[in-house]
Amino acid sequence: MNRLPYVTALISVTAAVALWLIATWLEGDTPGLASSPEPGPGIAQTQIRPDSAVQVSPDVTGCEQAEDTLRAQVDAAKHCSTDDDCTLFDYGYPIQCLTSVAKSDITMLRLAYRNYQQSCAFRVYYDCPTGRMERQAVCRNNRCTVELQSTEFLEEKTLDYLGLNPR
């Protein structure tokens, strides 16, 4: 029987545990190596301390301010007179999916989004799903909005043209 794989596995596991213990010791997080409790008054004699106030770092407040500013700029940029005045602006969080804004404000909004990205170290990334729908920027009541149109008609016509549509 060949015991080399077992010995290699044993050495690997031992090394991993040793490295974990060293890392937790260096970080000051030693849950498995907790020191013994200090002698002193018993639990019944200790006073209950109130919870500390929640501390928000300047980075978090800066990020929240950047999100609020970006949302306000996007909302202000939804003005239009005709459908041709509008364009899609689907950048994901913190902007809502299926967003349409005035073409004249798109450069300013891209710069504002770049500022948001620089202000927030931890950002949420997601794509705006559309499924089998085509998005179209339109002007309704002098506000840019997005309408969804089905693409099934185009797919069917394409398959018919290629001769691949079974009937």
Largest sheet: spatial strand order? 1-2
Main pleated sheet: 2 strands, antiparallel
* Distance N to C terminus: 64 Å
Structural class by secondary-structure content: alpha+beta
Number of strands: 4
Query: Helix content range of the residues, please?
Result: 40-55%
Determine Rg (CA atoms, Å).
29 Å
Number of helices: 4
What is the string of helix and strand elements? HHEEHEEH
**Low-confidence regions:** none
The proportion of strand residues reads 5-15%
Summarize the structure.
The chain is α+β, with helices and mostly antiparallel strands and 167 residues long. The chain has a domain at 58-155.
Describe the structure.
The protein is of the alpha+beta class and 167 residues long. It has a domain at 58-155. It has helices at residues 4-27, 58-76, 106-119, 152-162; strands at 86-88, 100-102, 133-140, 143-150. The strands form 2 sheets. It has a two-stranded antiparallel ribbon. A two-stranded antiparallel ribbon has the order 3-4. Strand 3 (133-140) and strand 4 form a beta hairpin. Helix 2 runs antiparallel to helix 3. The termini are far apart. The mean pLDDT is 76.
Summarize the helices and strands and which ones pair or pack.
Elements: H1 4-27, H2 58-76, E1 86-88, E2 100-102, H3 106-119, E3 133-140, E4 143-150, H4 152-162
Antiparallel strand pairs: 1-2, 3-4
